[in-house]
Design brief:
By secondary structure, the chain is an alpha/beta fold. Helix content is 37%, strand content 15%. Strand 17 and strand 18 form a beta hairpin.
């Protein structure tokens, strides 16, 4: 296989030569390919769809197909979106660290669709989803500056102005930390005690009373000014000690349940805010007739933890509250509309699925598989493993089992969970099920070897990002170290 850079040139020169794949009636509209809209709701947990927390997304699922178990290949924005948009595992695309960018040699969803006659645009909430991190590749328009209702208006104007089929990538941090949309927010402004608490934490002193600890955490998680009190750059050296402190302290706090309830309410308010806003966006798109010929895919890059395993947010952990994400595919006249698919899917499957639905042959290096057979109800997929990793730990998940292990020697001991009996991943069976552990470890070994072989064949390596000051400001507002 030629290097990806050469592949890009070949596709751009011979865009219309891709072989068509017949898919039910997708191309029965005079040969015109469908529009494609991919929506990524950053940090949206899988359990918030199909349970009433997001009524409009539930309605979309009723009009389409919902995958009950969709697995993200990473636990945070850059590597997970890179996998979503390239159908490559992180071990191949190599955009894994906060200083990495999606490499120019990697073929993206936007580039493939553009080469096949699509007009392409992205409307993102910036931060990691910025040109500095390589996500602009293949887009005719990349807007990472507009927010909220104005972003929706611009996206709708762009969609209305297209004469050819279009690909729209829509990304939002509405649900992301900090959780600033609580219906009854506590007022942490003018709290002089917070300044003193923050100073103690940043000096490595964690001798906080329960009241002080709760006040510091809730202010940190639910106000726009949290990074003024807890600058990420100063917190970074304390991260390991802070993680241990959180794990040990939270469960023992008398007010732990109430505090977590407050954070979850704030998180869910962000979910409802997005749900209402996207309802308005999609209703206006429908009024303009833009839904009649459009594949809509809604997903997320990762979930969020609320002390299920001792931490808040999306740390380097591979439990289901972090790596299981929603995935909805809707299209007019879709077979099995309203059905829930139990078979496992992965974010790397989105690109080959969209290409098959559009009648475009996928490049041979894609690692995902089309979900079209499962959407049509003719695919099995029941035993297909899913993979995720953080760089330091890695996981393989089957419908019944999950193995989490260190990615290198000297890391944490393995964790083995029987998901069918223990969906909360509470009982580690690594010592009790050696044969099962060995079989799943073999799956991880084969996955790693295949990733490395493909990475070498494609000539890929790490590329360094150079974010501007505005991007750095956005990342500080999201609580990230930069």
């Amino acid at each position: 296989m030629p290097p990806i850079r050469a592949m890009k040139r070949a596709i751009l020169l011979a865009a219309c030569l891709a072989a068509a794949v017949l898919v039910w009636a997708v191309l029965a509209r005079g040969g015109r390919r469908p529009n494609i809209i991919l929506v990524s709701v950053d940090t949206l947990r899988a359990d918030r769809v199909g349970a009433g927390a997001a009524p409009f997304l539930d309605a979309l699922a009723a009009d389409g197909v919902r995958f009950e178990t969709a697995i993200a290949q990473a636990t945070w924005t850059i590597p997970s979106h890179a996998s979503m948009l390239t159908s490559l595992h992180p071990g191949v695309h190599q955009a894994r660290r906060e200083t990495d960018r999606l490499g120019d040699r990697i073929l993206t969803m936007a580039e493939i669709l553009k080469a096949n006659g699509y007009e392409t645009a992205a409307f993102t909430d910036g931060g990691w989803m910025s040109p500095a991190f390589g996500f602009h590749q293949g887009f005719d328009l990349f807007d990472d500056e507009t927010r909220g209702d104005e972003k929706d208006r611009r996206a709708l104007r762009w969609m209305r102005g297209r004469r050819r089929p279009f690909f729209l990538f829509y990304h939002t941090y509405d649900v992301h930390f900090p959780y600033t949309h609580h219906p009854s927010p506590r007022d942490f402004s003018g709290e002089p005690a917070l300044e003193e608490i923050a100073a103690r934490i940043m000096s490595g002193r964690f001798d906080l009373s329960d009241e002080e600890f709760e006040k510091a955490v809730l202010a940190w998680c639910t106000t726009r000014e949290f990074y003024r009190l807890f600058p990420p750059g100063k917190i970074a050296p304390l991260k390991k000690e802070m993680d241990r402190f959180f794990r040990e302290r939270w469960p023992k706090m008398p007010s732990c349940a109430e505090s977590i309830r407050y954070l979850v309410e704030a998180y869910d308010a962000g979910v409802r805010r997005f749900d209402r806003r996207f309802r308005g966006f999609w209703e206006r798109a429908r009024a303009a007739g833009l839904d009649a010929d459009t594949i809509l895919i809604v997903t997320s890059d990762h979930g969020e933890g609320f002390l299920e395993h001792g931490t808040i947010g999306h740390p380097e952990a591979l439990y289901d509250e972090i790596i299981r994400v929603p995935l909805i595919v809707a299209f007019p006249g879709l077979p099995r509309a309203g059905k829930a698919v139990a078979a496992q899917a992965m974010l790397i499957d989105i690109l080959p699925t969209a290409l098959e639905m559009a009648g475009i042959a996928p490049p041979p290096h894609l690692q995902g598989e089309s979900l079209v057979p499962l959407i049509r109800g003719v695919g099995k997929g029941a035993t297909r493993p899913a993979f995720a990793g953080t760089g330091t730990i890695e996981a393989v998940r089957t419908p019944d089992w999950k193995l989490i292990r260190a990615a290198a020697e000297g890391g944490p001991p393995p964790e083995l969970y029987h998901l069918a009996r223990d969906p909360g991943e509470r009982e580690n069976l690594a010592g009790a099920e050696p044969a099962r552990l060995e079989a799943l470890a073999g799956e991880l070994d084969r996955r790693r070897a295949a990733d490395e072989a493909l990475r070498e064949r494609l000539g890929l390596g790490r590329e360094t990002a150079r974010p501007d000051e505005e991007t750095l400001r956005q990342l500080r507002a999201l609580g990230y170290l930069q």
